[in-house]
Design goal:
By secondary structure, the chain is α/β, with parallel strands linked by helices. It is built from seven helices and 14 strands. β10, α4 and β11 form a beta-alpha-beta unit.
Length: 244
């Protein structure tokens, strides 16, 4: 099907630079752009009036969490003084045996809402860091998004002790098992086109050096990228200094 988008301001690229085509025209056929210019006189199957709108290439969201923090955002900008006002630890750290906010949420609801919102605001490619990669691969496929996915993993959890102090509960075996799950996901989805794999060790303070070295080795073997949280907050900074 050949579609004409006309009347909008088109962000185009020609002769080595970007340019803005006022009241321009863009034609795409199936999944390929075939014309960009001032006007298009040929026959088309469908016309979209973009008057008053900006027509741009799809944006790339290089870091998002489509399955968490829907409720946490209400308190993310405040925090305990002994946590140096780090917002996410208010709801991500929990007492031992108690689920933090993230695992309580429905990943399908969060994934569909977040991905639809990103698509609505111009993002056609997303790098989604979370645990329910299979669920989000399905949702991204249904919405037509390009997505870089993989189940995140770590070798330690944030735990709040009886005195309210933040501690780390280490589990190296679980971290390595999580890496194996991520590798299996990447292999299973290789060659699917819009769905690509990445490795997501969660945070520098919740991943051991051994797990990070194993991640680097796996990324080289699989030919995929790595993304990790680093420099998130002052508490993490002091924790890394303490470990030196």
């Amino acid at each position: 099907m050949k579609t004409l988008v006309h009347g909008g301001d088109v962000v185009a690229y020609a002769a080595g630079s970007h340019r803005l085509v006022r009241n321009g025209a863009l034609v795409f056929e199936d999944d390929r752009v075939t014309f960009v210019g001032r006007a298009f006189a040929g026959a088309v199957d469908r016309r979209i009036d973009a008057t008053g709108k900006l027509v741009i290439p799809g944006l790339v969201n290089i870091h998002c969490h489509a399955d968490v923090e829907a409720g946490g955002r209400l308190i993310a900008d405040v925090g305990r003084r002994d946590y140096f006002h780090t917002g996410f630890l208010n709801y991500y750290g929990a007492r031992k045996g108690t689920k933090s906010l993230g695992p309580r949420q429905d990943p399908d609801v969060g994934g569909r809402f977040a991905m639809a919102e990103m698509l609505r605001n111009g993002c056609t490619t997303v790098v989604d860091i979370g645990v329910p990669a299979e669920s989000h691969a399905r949702i991204a496929g249904q919405l037509g998004l390009r997505a870089y996915l993989g189940p995140a993993y770590k070798s330690a959890d944030y735990v709040v002790d009886g005195a309210g102090r933040l501690c780390y509960e280490e589990n190296e075996a679980e971290g390595l098992a999580g890496l194996e799950r991520a590798k299996a996901f990447i292999r299973a989805h290789a060659g699917e086109g819009r769905i690509q794999g990445m490795l997501f060790p969660y945070q520098v303070d919740t991943c051991s050096p051994a797990l990070l070295r194993a991640t680097r080795k796996a990324a080289d073997e699989l030919g995929v990228g790595i993304e990790i949280h680093a420099g998130q907050n002052l508490l993490e900074f002091h924790e890394i200094l303490r470990r030196q």
